[in-house]
Amino acid sequence: MEVIYPKACGVDVHKSFIVAVICDSNSVEPKYLRKRFSTFNNSLIDFRNWLLENDCQNVCMESTGKYYVPVYNALEGYISNVVVANPKWVKCIKGEKDDNKDAKWIADLFKLGIVRHSFIPTKDIRVLRELTRYLYKLTNMRTSEKNRFTNALTVGNCKLDMVFSDIFGKSSSAIINTILSQNEFEDKDILDNVDGRCKSSHEDILNAVNGISFVDAQKQRMMVIQEHIDYLDKSIKKIKEIIDILIKPYEGYINFLCTIPGVDRKSAITIISEIGTDMSQFSSHYRLASWAGLAPGCNESAGKKKSVKISRAGVYLKPALVEVAHAAVTDKNCTYYANKYNVLSKRRGKKRAIIAIARKILVAIYHMLSTGEVFNPSDLASVETSNKDRVKYTKNNFLQSTKQLFSLGLTQDEIIQLISSQNSNLTPIT
Known about the structure:
The protein contains 18 helices and 7 strands. It has helices at residues 41-53, 68-75, 99-111, 123-155, 160-163, 170-180, 187-191, 202-209, 216-246, 251-257, 265-275, 285-291, 317-329, 336-348, 350-371, 380-384, 387-407, 412-422, and strands at residues 7-13, 17-24, 31-38, 58-62, 81-85, 299-301, 304-307. Strands 3-2-1-4-5 form a 5-stranded mixed sheet. It has a two-stranded antiparallel ribbon with strand order 6-7.
């Protein structure tokens, strides 16, 4: 096989140390240079200087958890070609595995150019990604705590969730605080907390709290949950403020993506934080869809397809795109994705149809960011116009064209002959 990188370095990354092997293929017999470094920052700088001294600008390492990140940070901006590979692409042969052999094996594979690189965005996008993912986790945590609080009300025979649409609203929260207090309360105390704009009747509200049975331990647990929810609200607000500062350089891209049906500011920020704005990192939209976990799997043997399920990739991007897809198919201003969803759902089912719409939206994002063109699908008119209307439109155009040919002096036989010459399948009308 042809050597793509005559001088390449393979790195076996661990938590406390790394093993690096430089493979020099400029001579007949490859020469190997091996050295071990710790993962302290000063030692990683020594590793970088060691690569520069040996004129090695091609480095490959495994994406081992988060342990590769400090190594990548030390090399970024100094080494021109740093590849982070999925461990499955550089897996060593069983029985021939140790730290030194792993690094040498990575170097040998990498120099031949057969190692697929993982997508690593720029530093600012990586920082933004950390915050958006943390915001996602905090939001899910708050949702879990709210569900836990609602279940606690149900266990205590409190039915406020049947009366109020939001038990964390102003009136419901005030009533719950009265119930959780150690003081005795009457019906008047409950009704005094009800806002005048509340649509629920006073009778239903009193029935919802009648017969509650909370012991002190249950009340204390619910108060702890309340405090945790309040703390999460403050944390989420703070993270959003930081994200708003970091996202300012990308406001143009956000507004650009918001022209796609179903995409709002929140989802646009999530998309940019996951894939960035430079689509040259992906060879095609197929690669991007596969990376996001929205491409059908390929598992075929002996002419039989065993599975075409989507992968588990895109843990953060995929849910955001599915949410966008749900919004797109219900968008009344643009029925493009709604019409496609209706066609797909009849044939493949609703779940597969939503995944297909999410993939179509991601492909549209890829081409928009690559070309700078606004959202304008080539089949937009045909999708949004019914077949009956398209037939009617085509007939009118045909009649107008026929009239023009008659006015130019052509006879009926000549027009029929002209049509027949364009399509041999047409039968002449007599």
